[in-house]
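Practice problem: predict the structure.
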Amino acid sequence: MRDRSKPPGVGAVIGWTALAAVAPGAAHLRAGWRRTGLAILCAYAALLLALLWVALTSDLADLAGQLVASSWLTVVTVASLALGVAWFTLIVHSFVVMNPGTLPSTGQAIAGGVAGTLAVAVLLPFGLVGQYAAVSQSALDDVFNAPSTPRPASDGDGREEDPWAGRDRVNILLLGGDADTHRVGVRTDSINVASIDVKSGNTVLLSLPRNLENVRFVPGSPMAKRFPDGFRLPANPDGSREDLLFAVWEYADSHPEIFGGRKNQGTKTLVDTVGYTLGLKIDWYALVNMWGFARLIDAIGGVTLTVPQDVVFGKYDEGLVKAGTRKLRGADAMWFARSRTNSDDYTRMGRQRCVLGALLSQSDPATVLSRFNQVALATKELLRTDIPRPMLEHLVPLALKVKNAKVTSVQFVPPLINTGYPDWTKIRTVTAKALRASVVTRRPLTATAAPGATPKATTERGPTRTPQAAAEQGPTRTPLPGTSATAKPDPTTPKGITEGCG
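Answer:
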């Protein structure tokens, strides 16, 4: 039964309609629609309690992983649009039950305008969530289109088994494609392996130089049979080399006869070769288009970097990235990372890690959400990978761990190794040492000791090096001002990912 009491004024109609946006059913109760109002209010309270229960009982990282699943994104898209329409309808009906027809014509116009604006306003957030979910699903389906692997089976208790199949670490090969219009095939300008501890998220970024020579291939593989003594080809007339690590992908793709006529073997060949070089099993790869990377940086509004000195770029010195700390747009950030002018490959590797570290640290959720469509579009153009779509459910929680975990890096460059005559055993030994160190929380060394005691080296620094081992690291470096001449850096010690920034 409706209440036949005196109709409310303009302020009351607007106020009760607005209250219905945050407390659905309130306007109906005021207008005398008690059963309808109580039903709407109870349904709203049940929805809030359900959301609260999910928030309190769920691991937010796991929940984020589930929300990237294709089925869940579809549910979110449909549910958000349905809720938006329902809330819009609720506001309109709340306005109608307040009997605005009894108001003066001016009051009706004012109240109707406010109610219409409010109805559209409550619809927009739901529509935005639905759009984000649809755009996410499209972008993820485009990028992660590798054939699906079987999902983990459940154990006898119905619980899902370990998605990592008992592995302690996940190793992902991260490649930067130095593509250009006048080049044929894929040249991998940047070659890194992210080795991630699945429990802690602690990550070691292992960087191999693009100019690594005499590359060895997996024993018994077609490339190993073709190059039993390492990857060696005659130099080009201009003295440039096409038998370095960066050219392995393109060479394998260009010579299907080596693989019995099978085409497109470059990806697998490079993945296997990098894994064999480091002594790791590479799980997946991700190839980043370097200029797609620039568009991603533009999509988040740029990255703030400290450029230690002016960086000239271009074949004829067409541009300059000036020294200093400021926000760089995508093109300048990429030129800072990639310029070869007055620079060697090792310095470039450091600058590339600097840009990657800045992007990881500055891509906060608020920035990504505010520029979501631009980020999604840039991601489509950015990435090529063989990571199966279903694995995202597990990789997203792992990525959230990485963002708050310890990330270190090792660069296999002189004096650690000689890129012309690499010590392959040493590369694998240093890799293993870095992975072990990443799971250990190091205690700071103290300067105090008991009276008369002789300070002892802690085992956390590793075994004492022999003169021969010290000689392998090349000449000592002149210490920087303010540092101890006896504190020589150990090139085998993992470093922070932002080393290479000013």
